[in-house]
From TrEMBL:
PANTHER family: ABC TRANSPORTER ATP-BINDING PROTEIN. This is ATP-binding cassette domain-containing protein. InterPro entries: AAA+_ATPase, ABC_transporter-like_ATP-bd, ABC_transporter-like_CS, ABC_transporter_ATP-binding, P-loop_NTPase. Residues 5-234 form the ABC transporter domain. Belongs to the ABC transporter superfamily. Keywords: ATP-binding, Nucleotide-binding, Transport. One of its GO terms (molecular function) is ATP binding. PROSITE patterns: ABC_TRANSPORTER_1 (PS00211), ABC_TRANSPORTER_2 (PS50893). Gene3D superfamilies: P-loop containing nucleotide triphosphate hydrolases (3.40.50.300). Signal peptide: none annotated.
Length: 308
């Protein structure tokens, strides 16, 4: 099946000479959640803006649902919902009118039942008659999401949707995202809360300095690049790792009170049993043992650092 969004050799150079995108290619499958991760200035928002028809590319091609985003602007834009980073709303308009008007802008006939459902899903129903200037920052961000969903898009871009949003609202927003994915909506997410991407995404794309460094299934990425640590808390601190333990590449932490041993969970042997025996043979007494798996954030930092 053809990807619902296809980005091919996309480049963008601004009048200042700054090259925001450098030959980016990316296919996004229908019904998936793709987390687009990258540091500030990596090119995430520029990429999203080009796909949504807000910014013109310098070179390359983008299609949405098989339609070119430049030649078939109306068709592609009607398929896309965008939640931008900036809180851009009409302060004196009501929530209901704002969301209903957004649906009309995309050529959709009025559907009060759909608008009601969207507002209820986002816990905005009791605010439907409030003007936007009366709302908190978190509530205004919910309105942006409601506007993006008003015309029933097939592709939804969430550009830092939980920035400045409290924890309870963040959780309810991800529940809405999961329901949308279950209904067949494709979701592209950028976030600084990498633990959210780890929890919700199907695939991870990492972009830095205008280039895609990696696109991979999240679970495969965690398995391939994720490392596990054995953390050994010592009964007595060490000044240095004994020479007899050099082959284990141990790291001494916490003023000599902890040893860190990294191992590959997919290997035939982890080496833990022999390490514990070697510690006992060296007369090193243990206070506690625990393990820690590399997080997606650890992997992300490693990929970005390697790509610099």
């Amino acid at each position: 099946m053809a990807p619902i969004v296809s980005v091919s050799n996309l480049s963008k150079t601004y009048a200042s000479g700054f090259q925001a995108l450098k030959g980016v290619s990316l296919d996004i499958e229908e019904g998936e959640i793709l987390a687009l991760l990258g540091p500030n200035g990596a090119g995430k928002t520029t990429l999203i803006s080009i796909v949504c028809g807000i910014v013109n590319a310098t070179g390359g091609k983008v299609t949405v649902g098989g339609n070119d985003v430049v030649r078939d602007f109306r068709q592609t834009r009607a398929m896309i919902g965008l939640v931008p980073q900036e809180l851009t709303t009409d302060a004196f308009e009501t929530v209901w009118n704002t969301v209903s008007f957004s649906r009309g802008l995309h050529g959709k006939k009025p559907d009060p039942a759909h608008i009601e459902k969207v507002l209820k899903d986002l816990s905005l129903w009791n605010k439907k008659d409030s003007t936007l200037r009366e709302l908190s920052g978190g509530m205004k961000r919910r309105v942006l999401i409601a506007k993006a969903l008003s015309h029933e898009p097939r592709v939804l871009f969430l550009d830092e949707p939980t920035a400045g949003v409290d924890v309870s609202l963040r959780k309810s927003m991800w529940e809405v995202v999961q329901r949308l994915r279950a209904s067949g909506v494709t979701i592209i997410l950028t976030t600084h809360y990498i633990e959210e991407a780890e929890e919700i995404a199907d695939r991870i794309a990492v972009i830095n300095s205008g280039e895609i460094l990696l696109v991979e299934d999240k679970n495969a990425l965690m398995t391939k690049l994720g490392r596990k640590q054995l953390r050994v808390d010592l009964a007595q601190p060490l000044e240095r790792v004994p020479d007899s333990l050099a082959s284990y590449n141990l790291l001494l932490e916490g003023e000599g009170e902890r040893l860190i041993y990294e191992y590959d969970t997919s290997a035939d042997r982890t080496g833990i049993t022999s390490l514990l025996a070697a510690l006992a043979e060296a007369g090193i007494r243990l206070r506690d043992i625990s393990t820690r798996q590399s997080s997606l954030e650890d992997i992300f930092v490693e990929i970005v650092e390697a790509g610099r």
